[in-house]
Amino acid sequence: MTDEPTGFLYPFIEAEERDAPALLADLAASARGKIADSEALRATTVQRSGATLRAAGEAMAHRFRHGGRLFTFGNGGSATDAEGTAELFRAPPAGRTLPALSLVDDLAVLTALANDVGYELVFSRQLIAHGRAGDIAIGFSTSGNSPNLVRAFEEADRRGLLTVGFAGYDGGAMARCDAVHHCLVARSDSVHRVQETQDALVLALWSVVHESLDGELDAEVVT
Amino acid sequence: MSADAPSPLPDDLAVASLALARRFSAGATMWCAAPQWPAHGRHVAVEFVHPVIVGKRALPAVHVDSVDLVRVTRQLARPGDVLLTIGAADDDRLQALLRRADAWGLTSLWLGAGPRPAPGQADHVLWAEEAEPVTAARSGELVMLYHLLWELTHVVFEHPGLLEPPPACTDEVCITCSDEGRVAEVAAVGDGRCVEVVTAGHLETVDVSLVDRVAPGDLVLVHAGVAIGRIDEESRP
Fold first, then answer.
1. ipTM rounded to 2 decimals
2. How far apart are CA A54 and CA B85, in angstroms?
3. What is the rounded distance in angstroms from the CA atom of residue A34 to the CA atom of residue A29?
4. Which residue of B has its CA nearest to A1?
5. Fold classification of B182-231 (topology level)
6. For residue B193, what are the CA distances in angstroms to A185, B3, B202, B223?
7. What domains can you pick out in chain A, each with its CATH number?
8. Are B14 and A31 a contacting pair at CB < 8 A?
9. Tens digit of each residue's pLDDT (9 = 90 or more) over A113-157
10. What does the pLDDT look like over B8-29, one tens digit per residue?
């Protein structure tokens, strides 16, 4: 066994191993297991979250129909999820485009806020500037505990935005925070499997929003 | 891929991770290009530079964000570095980079989803073939590819004895003097029939009288100090 922090993930790999073909076989076996874990967690989480996805997606569709805009945020890898999510809504592979802006895109704004008022406020201060009642805020945190996300959700809630949180592990502070109206949790203690599952949840949420918008459109055409 | 054929992905990940760990161990920087999905390029950079598991070493990975990926990567990458491209098989911006990887002396990895690229376009191809190409970018499939690449690369680091590259080729036939042509990128042209090219990361002077007039950035096939053919690029970068 290895003493490396990831040792528990690879109990069958010996640190003294010197045989490249044997290591390659172990790596491939490890990859097979992780791919299966990732696929299973994504499938079960999307299924288990069906009601939340439906409620959040329909509420978002309602706001988009009335001129609402989407703001997304997160830190590190989750910042790239925020960026990718805004992109998915703004420039989707198919279907209508919706107004979405990532609050991690502008480095001048981010670094000015981090330097002058503190990193905890980098998203909430942007929501004070941009957010209006009727808009939507989506934040990503693998732990669910990032202080700047909790502050952003509280500010968004105060200003009348609809809030949707994506968390991992047990949902952390975001799952217990009243300011997070809809919380989608990828229940895993692997940051990587959490992020993969959050991606799948985003895609499912995006689909509900579009189904819901199409449904409303059909209803209007009929009446 | 047929439903009963096992996916090549686990084995491809294993081989790519061993190669990547060896390159990092030798001092490489990994340059990431993802023009279709720049968020994934940034995610790869933060993944390697700032590991999620405390105690894992920080590795140099950079997202190249430019409308002229070829020019910027040519300026920044050094022989022995790694080029990681993320995007669909038909992305000609990535193809223009990958065609030059050998000339620049880079090890190349290509990550993507949907129809697989034709063989030989990159040293390592990590592909989510089953994924729906239009939604793969946000389905969790694409991010899983580089998460696993990161995880397995760090496993290789736990095996220092395997980080040494395999012994250099000791066969009778050596690539520099065999019948094989090498890809070279024209670096500078003069008045005469000789031009400077970059091949396998090194500058070399070659005779171009067998090919049409060349310009800096053109790709040629070089054999024994002579450019024996031009490599056509359907869409010039």
1. 0.89
2. 35
3. 9
4. B158
5. SH3 type barrels. (2.30.30)
6. 65, 55, 20, 15
7. 40-222 (3.40.50.10490)
8. yes
9. 999 999 999 999 999 999 999 999 999 999 999 999 999 999 999
10. 999 999 999 999 999 999 999 9
The model's pTM is 0.90
Chain A residues 44-103 within an 8 A CB cutoff of chain B? 76-77, 79-81, 83-85, 87-88, 93-94
By mean pLDDT, which of A10-14, A93-97, A168-172, B228-232 is the weakest? A10-14
What are the sequence ranges of the domains in chain B? Answer: 9-163, 182-231
Binary contact (B158, A27; C-beta < 8 A):
no
- Cβ within 8 Å, pair B18-A195: no
Cβ-Cβ pairs closer than 8 A, A with B, add up to 134
Report CB contact under 8 Å: B148, A31: yes
The length of chain A is 223
CB atoms A35 and B159 under 8 Å: no
Per the CB < 8 A criterion, the answer to whether B141 and B7 are in contact is no
Q: Report domain B9-163's class.
A: alpha beta
For range B3-10, the mean pLDDT: 81
Cβ atoms A169, A103 nearer than 8 A:
no
Q: Chain B closest CA to A43's CA: distance in Å? A: 11
